[in-house]
Amino acid sequence: MKAGNLRNPRLAPLLALVMALVLTPLAHAEVKPLARIVAVVNDDAIMSTELDDRVRQVRSQLQSRNVPMPDDSELRHQVLQRMITEQIELQMAQRANLSVSDTQLNKALRSIAQNNDMTLDQFSQHLQKQGLSLGDVREQVRRELLINQVQQHEVAGQVNITDREVDQYLQNAGANANVQYHLGHILIAVPEAPTPQQAQAAKQKAQQLRERIESGKASFEQVAASQSDGSNALDGGDLGWRSGAELPTVFSDVVPDMSVGDVSQPIRSPSGYHLVKLLDKRGGGSADQQRDQVRRRLFERKVNDQLEAWTQEIRASAYIDNRLDEHGNTAGSSQ
Q1: Whole-angstrom Cα distance, residue 172 to residue 105?
Q2: Pick from 55, 114, 154, 293: CA 20 to 30 A from residue 207's CA?
Q3: Which CATH number fits domain 163-316: 3.10.50.40, 3.40.50.2000, 3.90.550.10, 3.30.70.120?
Q4: Do 11-159 and 163-316 agree at the fold level?
Q5: 3-state secondary structure at position 100
């Protein structure tokens, strides 16, 4: 039995990003440098002006969440990696003739406006005052909805949860079935078939990052934003609240034994090495809703387990020419 639609792991951060932009004044007189190609993704190019705009948006988002700002070059690399993955997914959407209706777009935009305590008309007027247009925001949301459709078709649509799986989880979880965890996450990815040297290098990097966090040299959120390969990196690694059933399989044996504030040792999975921080912990919902909640959460856990592996697969099969150097500049650029 299918448990339902995949909740887009990037749509909620996008809505938060848009809200951060609404509340952040922009420099209207800024002079933009000459556009350069920063990456080629199959037949498409990502321009430096697009990257600059996206980095500016992510900075606003991080500031609104009080996440310490990563190094500029690290942030540019992180944002570009996200943009490359999105471009591949959008190309898949185009090949599959996927589309987003005006009704879907308007519903998403109304949600953004309501989260800002505005009507859609008020939201549009406020965007204009900030140097933004409703059309630009509509395009951002349209892209995210298309990406969600691709993920739904390629990953979530292939996931099924049986009654037996629900029964087994409830039996194993016992009194902890409704416990929820607020988690932070850092992923150091490895290739699809890593050599022993590549796996060891990723493990050492994860250990070094953990030591950096534990020593107080950087916060978990700052390290996630600058170093993590996970889809939530630019949100400071915040995975939000999850029940035990929603935990990725590789975390389920570790997180329940952690105390609030703990950062795990590196955890191995096919995707790489993970660091998990337990930000908070609380009781779950009512017993009457338990079975439906477990079915939905088991579904989401399966999807999350498969999503990062799928992302690596589509990147491995694409032609990608990343032209940023170690300082976050393109060849011949003096940014």
Answers
A1: 41
A2: 55
A3: 3.10.50.40
A4: no
A5: coil
Q: Which residue has the tokens 């059933």?
A: 245
Residue given tokens 């959460």 in the structure block: 297
- What does DSSP assign to residue 324? B
What pTM did the predictor assign? 0.67
Q: Report how far apart, in Å, the C-alpha atoms of 288 and of each of 170, 282, 284, 299 are.
A: 13, 18, 12, 19
Residue 244 corresponds to which amino acid?
G
Domain boundaries, the chain: 11-159, 163-316
pLDDT tens readout for residues 159-194:
889 989 888 877 776 656 678 899 999 999 988 788
- The rounded percent of the chain whose pLDDT value lies above 70 is 84
Q: 17: buried, middle or exposed (CB in 10 Å: 19+, 13-18, 0-12)?
A: buried
Looking at domain 11-159, its CATH superfamily turns out to be: Porin chaperone SurA, peptide-binding domain (1.10.4030.10)
Residue labelled with tokens 């898949």: 92
Within its chain, how far is the Cα of 34 from the centroid?
30
183-225: pLDDT as tens digits: 999 999 988 788 999 999 999 999 999 999 999 999 999 999 9
Tokens of 193: 């078939």
Residues present in the chain in total: 335
- With a cut of 70, list the residues of the chain below it in pLDDT: 1-33, 173-177, 284-289, 327-328, 331-335
